[in-house]
Automatic annotation (TrEMBL), chain B:
PANTHER family: ECF RNA POLYMERASE SIGMA FACTOR SIGR, RNA POLYMERASE ECF-TYPE SIGMA FACTO
UniProt keyword list: Sigma factor, Transcription, Transcription regulation
Protein name as annotated: Sigma-70 family RNA polymerase sigma factor
Segments traversing the membrane: none
NCBIfam families: sigma70-ECF
Length: 69, 197
């Protein structure tokens, strides 16, 4: 249940019940929920690289000049 | 090359192709580079893979229906290119028995989290490369599902199409991948001197 909520795959009722009711009653789930949220935040901030601009320009140029075919 | 076999081939003018390419494909280039880098774990291979993928995308642009999910379409091409051209053909059999993983995680009993001892405070102090290293330490198929889901926000169904696997497998693989990631982070936390929860 936790996974589908965090992945955005739960219905809004499931989400509401879980976040508002269940988390208040269930300590393991509460801990888990916050842990999973923290991990996702860490992933998003630390694991994203941008493409080197040179490469991007190179690709654009090749396509504009129709060298891809 | 297998793309969407059931979608009709489009007929675009050169101008339309350029519009689609620059308007619908190029915006995803950073995400795609990131994925390429996490797959190959090598900056030069990542650049080659990225370029190959985008050029392929242009060559086969008539297999793409404009206005549909370009990101998923592109990721699928990249993943297939990686498997065909870049993935090192390992002589060892895969260390992970995916069949076993699946049946375990599809059973009713396992909705309980198998949480190793890891605390939020420890995570907040991981300001270096710990998470990046932990991610890279995972087997490539596990790394992939975490990237697609947690970094790129794909839904299970999109992931199933990108990876050519059933949705059930997407979910069980994600579950297992996340637990492995947590175990790795737990190790780092211990090294950093945190008491376990």
């Amino acid at each position: 249940m936790l996974q589908i909520i965090l992945d955005g795959e739960a219905t809004s009722e499931q989400k509401e019940h879980f976040l508002k009711n269940h988390l208040e009653e269930c300590m393991p789930c509460y801990k888990n929920y916050h842990l999973e949220v923290a991990i996702r935040q860490l992933l998003k901030t630390k694991c994203c690289k941008d493409a080197p601009q040179e490469l991007v320009d190179d690709i654009k140029t090749k396509v504009i000049n129709n060298l891809a075919s | 090359m297998e793309l969407e076999e059931n979608s009709p081939k489009q007929n675009y003018t050169e101008a339309e192709k350029q519009t689609i390419f620059h308007g619908e494909f190029m915006p995803h280039i950073n995400s795609m580079y990131n994925f390429a880098y996490r797959l190959t774990l090598d900056a030069d291979d990542a650049k080659d893979l990225l370029q190959d993928t985008y050029l392929k995308a242009y060559r086969f642009i008539e297999s793409f229906q404009k206005g549909t999910n370009a990101k998923a379409w592109l990721f699928r091409i990249l993943k297939n290119s990686f498997i065909n051209d870049y993935r090192k053909k390992s002589k060892e059999p895969s260390k992970v028995d995916y069949q076993e993983v699946e049946s375990y995680y599809n059973s009713e009993e396992v909705d309980r989290q198998i949480t190793p001892d890891l605390r939020v405070e420890a995570l907040k102090d991981m300001i270096g490369d710990e998470i990046s290293n932990a991610l890279n330490a995972l087997d490539v198929d596990f790394r992939t599902v975490i990237i697609l889901c947690d970094l790129e926000g794909f839904k299970y169904e999109e992931m199933a199409k990108i990876l050519d696997i059933p949705i059930g497998t997407v979910r069980s693989r994600l579950h297992r991948a996340r637990n492995l990631l947590k175990e790795k982070l737990s190790e780092y936390a211990k090294q950093m001197g945190y008491k376990t929860a």
